[in-house]
Amino acid sequence: MKSKKFILFILLVFSFILFFINIKSILLWINNNHKSNKLNEKLKQVTKISSTNSDSSNLVNPPENDNDDYWQYINEDFLDVDFSNLLNQNDDTVGWIKVNGTKIDYAVVQSNDNNFYLTHSFDKSESVAGWVFSDFRNNFNNLNYNSIIYGHRMRDESMFGSLPYVLNDEWYKDKKNHIIKLSTTKENTIWQIFSIYVVYKESYYITTNFKNLDAYQEFLDTIVRRSQYLFFTSVNTNDKILTLSTCKDSYGNRLVVHAKLIKKETR
C-alpha cells in the first residue's frame, strides 16, 4: 500500500514538473514572438521602403506564349529598399522579401550555415522564432539556378507562419497573389510563382546548382509536376528560380513555393 502511494506521489510530482516546464516554454515562445514582431515593426519604421518601376528594368526570359500570365506580372512595381540602416544593425542582411497575399514582409539575412538563424533573431539574440534567412550556399550578387529562403511557421503567422495561405483556393484564384518581390543590395527583382506543394523533408528541392542543363531541366519538370495547382506559365533552363520553404507540420512535411525571375533592375 505504501509503495503504491509513493508511486502516485512520484507521478504527481513528475506531472507538476512537466506542467511547469510546458508553461515556461509557452511563456518563452510568447515573449520571443512579441520581441520578434516588435523588432520587425521597428525595422520597417527605420527602413525606407518604396515602390518603383523604372524604364531601366530588364525582362527575364520572356515566354513565346502571349497568353502566359508573365505578361501581366511584368507590369508590377518593384520593391525598393534602402539597406543602409539594416546593414548597420546586421551586416548579414542580404535582402527584403514580400509575398503577395501573405503577411511575409521581412528583411532576409544569411549566415555561414543554415542553423544560426533558426534560433536567433535579426539582432542575433536567441529566439525560438528565428528569422527569415537565405540558404548559406546562395549568392544574391550572382544568382544560383535555385535561391532558397527559409522561415519558421510560427503560430501567430509571423515569419513564414502565413505562407500556408498559398494552399487555400481563395489565395490561388486571385492572380495578384502569384508574385514575390525581393529587393537585394544589388538589384530589385520580381518573381512569378509556378509551383506550390507539400513534401516530406528532403534535400532535392533545395538543390542550388546542377551538373548540367539536362539535370536542371529534370529538376524543373519534377517541381512543376509536384504542384497542387496549375499555374499557366512556362519554366525552362533559361530561368532562375526562388524557393520558399517552411515546416508544414510536426511530422517532417515541408511546404514549398517555387517562383521564377521575370523582371529585375540594378540598384
Domain module count? 1
Q: What's the total number of strands? A: 11
Low-confidence stretches: 18-29
Order of helices and strands: HEEHEHEEEEHEEHEE
Helicity, as a percent range: 25-40%
How many helices? 5
| Overall mean confidence score, pLDDT | 88
Major sheet attributes: 9 strands, mixed
Sum up the structure in keywords.
26% strand; 267 residues; nine-stranded mixed β-sheet; alpha+beta; globular; two-stranded antiparallel ribbon
What's the helix and strand layout?
Blueprint: H1 2-46, E1 49-52, E2 58-59, H2 70-73, E3 78-81, H3 84-89, E4 93-99, E5 105-109, E6 133-134, E7 146-150, H4 169-173, E8 179-184, E9 187-200, H5 213-226, E10 241-247, E11 253-266
Parallel strand pairs: 7-10
Antiparallel strand pairs: 1-3, 2-11, 4-5, 4-8, 6-7, 8-9, 9-11, 10-11
